[in-house]
């Protein structure tokens, strides 16, 4: 089926790093440097995601991520190269390096996902150093205090309303709007990094998805990001896809797995991402705050980005080779948008 409403899929012949949101710039720079030093696509994807986790100015991921409703930050992440090479951690509250920890789960255990206290015990046993401030920064503490005060002023939950907090749509970009100097508003979400290097003989595709989840979420809430097939899926024989936005919407359609399987069946990356987003739009009562966005990279180098609503951006870094030419890096709006924005 041809979807003429979507922009064409762009073919890439050389190495490429594709990531989500404007803070993907931070990820792409670290990932590309790792590729140039001879790192694998997985090394590069983890380096890229870790650079964002370690950046306290990004209030969506890692240190400085917004806390849950109890005031504690919890992190979720997963990594993947293939169905037999994947790992994740969720509800990690004392360690900043969720992406690196997820990789250790994949490489050092027979399991795929470790949660909460168990994930932290594994981190300790693996030599990770806990974060002294429980991942909070002055800014995230202040944001929590403001949220508590606003919530108290607003009164209780309306009768019949479900528990939980929906952040404003595209709130991730408040970081960019603040000039990269911290985000003034409640935020959520995720950095997703996909890397392809056709010049290596091992796994040529890898992905990482890492987040602090929805700001002020119910304690214990885990979204799509650490769960294979939801926040991220990679299969060397078909491609890679990863998702950002309201995790609950992505989880209901197994978004990343679905995108990769559609590419396996012959859809282009743009068609696959478009089909996943249409599935979300048709199965949920979409709220004004809702956003879902995806990036996809097919095994042959074709790629796409798309979002349910305007406001999503991706960052793409490419070069014909890792050494002969300088990399080209560009931040751009979503390749296509499914629904109009809201006022
Ligand atoms: N997509 C990240 C989350 O919902 O936690």
Notes on the protein architecture:
- This protein has 343 residues and is α+β, with helices and mostly antiparallel strands.
- It has a single domain (16-153, 164-337), classed as Glutamine Phosphoribosylpyrophosphate, subunit 1, domain 1 (4-Layer Sandwich).
- It is 29% helix and 23% strand.
- The chain has nine helices and 13 strands.
- The chain has helices at residues 24-36, 41-53, 98-108, 116-125, 138-154, 174-177, 247-251, 255-264, 269-283; strands at 16-20, 75-82, 85-92, 113-115, 188-196, 205-214, 232-235, 239-245, 292-298, 303-307, 313-318, 328-333, 336-337.
- It has an eight-stranded mixed sheet with strand order 4-3-2-6-5-1-11-12. Strands 7-8-9-10-13 form a five-stranded mixed sheet.
- Helix 1 packs antiparallel against helix 2 and helix 8 (255-264) packs across helix 9 (269-283).
- The longest helix has 17 residues, at 138-154.
- It is globular, with a radius of gyration of 19 Å.
- The protein starts with 15 loop residues before the first strand and ends in a 6-residue tail after the last strand.
- The protein binds glycine (GLY).
- Glycine (GLY) binds next to strand 5, strand 6 and strand 8.
- Glycine binds next to strand 5, strand 6 and strand 8.
Question: What is the structure about, briefly put?
Answer:
This protein is of the alpha+beta class and 343 residues long. The protein has helices at residues 24-36, 41-53, 98-108, 116-125, 138-154, 174-177, 247-251, 255-264, 269-283; strands spanning 16-20, 75-82, 85-92, 113-115, 188-196, 205-214, 232-235, 239-245, 292-298, 303-307, 313-318, 328-333, 336-337.
């Amino acid at each position: 089926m041809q979807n003429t409403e979507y922009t064409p899929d762009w073919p890439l012949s050389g190495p490429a790093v594709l990531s989500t949101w404007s803070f993907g710039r931070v990820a792409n720079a670290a990932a590309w440097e790792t590729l140039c030093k001879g790192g694998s696509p997985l090394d590069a994807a983890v380096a890229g995601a870790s650079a964002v986790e370690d950046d306290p100015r990004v209030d969506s991921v890692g240190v400085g991520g917004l806390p849950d409703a109890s005031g504690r930050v919890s992190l979720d992440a997963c990594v993947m190269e293939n169905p037999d090479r994947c790992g994740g951690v969720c509800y990690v509250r004392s360690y900043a390096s969720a992406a690196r920890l997820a990789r250790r789960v994949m490489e050092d255990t027979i399991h795929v996902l470790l949660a909460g206290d168990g994930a932290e015990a594994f981190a300790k046993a693996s030599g990770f150093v806990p974060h002294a401030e429980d991942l909070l920064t002055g800014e995230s503490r202040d944001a929590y205090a403001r949220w508590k005060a606003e919530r108290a002023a607003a009164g209780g939950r309306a009768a019949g309303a479900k528990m939980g907090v929906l952040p404003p749509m595209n709130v991730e970009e408040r970081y960019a709007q603040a000039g990269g100097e911290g985000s003034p508003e409640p935020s959520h979400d995720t950095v997703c990094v996909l890397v392809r290097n056709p010049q290596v003989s091992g796994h040529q595709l890898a992905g990482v998805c890492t987040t602090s989840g929805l700001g002020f979420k119910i304690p214990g809430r885990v979204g799509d990001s650490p769960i294979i097939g939801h926040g991220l899926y990679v299969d060397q024989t078909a491609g890679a896809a990863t998702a950002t936005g309201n995790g609950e919407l992505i989880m209901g359609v197994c978004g990343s797995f679905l995108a990769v399987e559609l590419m396996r069946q012959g859809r282009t990356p743009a068609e696959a991402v478009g089909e996943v987003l249409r599935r979300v739009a048709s199965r949920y009562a979409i709220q004004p705050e809702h956003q879902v966005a995806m990036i996809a990279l097919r095994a042959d180098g074709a790629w796409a980005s798309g979002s349910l609503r305007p406001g999503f951006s991706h960052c793409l870094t490419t070069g014909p080779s890792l050494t002969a030419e300088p990399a080209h890096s560009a931040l751009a709006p979503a390749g296509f948008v499914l629904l109009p924005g809201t006022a």
